[in-house]
Amino acid sequence: MKTRKLKNDGTDTVALETTDPAGVGKLATPVVITSLDYTDYTQTNSETENLDINDTDMKNNRHCYFAPLRLRGGGDNELDNTDSNSTSGDMGAGGSQKRGPTSPGGLPAKLPRTSETSEINDLIGFLEQTVLQEKDKKKLGVMVAEKMLTKIARLRTVTQSLAHENYRLVGELKGKDDALNQSLTVFIGKLEAKNAETCGLSAELEALKTTASQDPCTAQQPSYASKAAKAIQRVPRTETAPKLTAAPQTKSRKTVNKEQMAKSRKTKATSRFLIEIPQDMTVASAKAGLWQAVRAKCSNPKAKTIVSGKSLVIIPDDANTLEVIRSMNNFIEIGPRKPRVIIYDVDGGISKDELTECLLAQNAELGITAEDMGNSVPLHKLGPRNGDAVHWVMEVPPSVLAKMENKLVYIGMTRCRCKLHSTLPQCYNCQQYGHTSARCEQKTPSCRNCAGPHDSRTCNEDGVKCVNCKGPHKASSGICKARGQATRSLLRRTDFGSPQ
């Protein structure tokens, strides 16, 4: 926007011609602004110098951008003329003509001269000048013009506040940056000093090494004073303090159980012999008669006898005793138990025949042969029998166990884990291990919660007691000693082939 000064003769009447204030074409008639009153807003020369006016042609008119204008004439007829002492010149309008209200605004704060602030000042000044011109032409009402000028003044204030805050933050950032640079300089100086000290010590150490290598006799032969000091400090052997040895760490129950299981697997399984005790004979008399019969054929028998109800279980410990007991007709021989593996997460639709076929066809890298699968028998499933995935338990020869234990096998479209199955079935009626309630011969049930003579499902006792080991836990607890003993006994009766 360009403004040209038309008249300035020392009075308060100034005529300005403005062309194209909105940038859309020339005005039909020049705009004449009369009676510029400087009494309410006076600027000194120093304040004028601080104003950001980019257009040199606008410096003579202080009201174009920053100073509010007070217009005489062109106001709404509804407002009364309240300034009766006005001495304005005659610009074609009588002194009794009404005028508009004073435009809002104030002196802007002094801001550093930048391209952004200059552009903002230009834009706000353009808006003010446009509003005043439109108001003079009576295209805008006085109230509308007043509101617009109020908003423009507020916009100027907010812009200046933002600019001041920006410059303040920039100053703080600059101060912190200078402080950090100063601290970094001090740190680098200290680091260089330490580096120089380290280099000096390294050079001194190298010099000492060189001196010691050049005179080995001096370095190896101790002086008389050092020998005397060692003699004084020598302590008799009997008075030396005993060496402190670290106490062995206590093994956890899990570690002990794992070691016992591994030891049980290394025990070579042999055949067992079962003999029924007659009803009219006691256990002691049956053991005495058995001892005499075996002693008659073997001078030094070695065997272990276990009483199981009304039966005796004989476990030979050497080959000679084994052959003697095997030759006797009244014994029932029980061979070693084959190991069992459990295959986890098998597809529920896989049958027994499909299980062996998949193991043979899909796992050639394990070295499983057709003969191995011929000697292997899928026994039963664990888990939900009608579920999407079940766990198969198979009885396999020792050679197949070595190929499958702790391995991954492919069965159908599933990759399954294999582990040794050493879990014993537990009877829900008598709580003993080795059989289920369907084959239990005990008529009176035993409670697995309190060890009482009643069914576990009807127990109302608060305390717990194990019927097997008498410990303060349920009979089905995993920490039961009887469970561990039964599992180890099962492993000792299992043929794992050659000792591992």
Automatic annotation (TrEMBL):
Q: Which GO terms describe its molecular function?
A: nucleic acid binding; zinc ion binding
Q: Which UniProt keywords apply?
A: Metal-binding, Zinc, Zinc-finger
Query: What stretches pass through the bilayer?
Result: none
Instruction: Please report the stretch or stretches of sequence annotated as the CCHC-type domain.
Output: 427-442
Q: Reply yes or no: does the keyword Zinc apply.
A: yes
Region entry Disordered: which residue ranges?
71-115, 238-267
Descriptive protein name: CCHC-type domain-containing protein
Native species: Macrosiphum euphorbiae
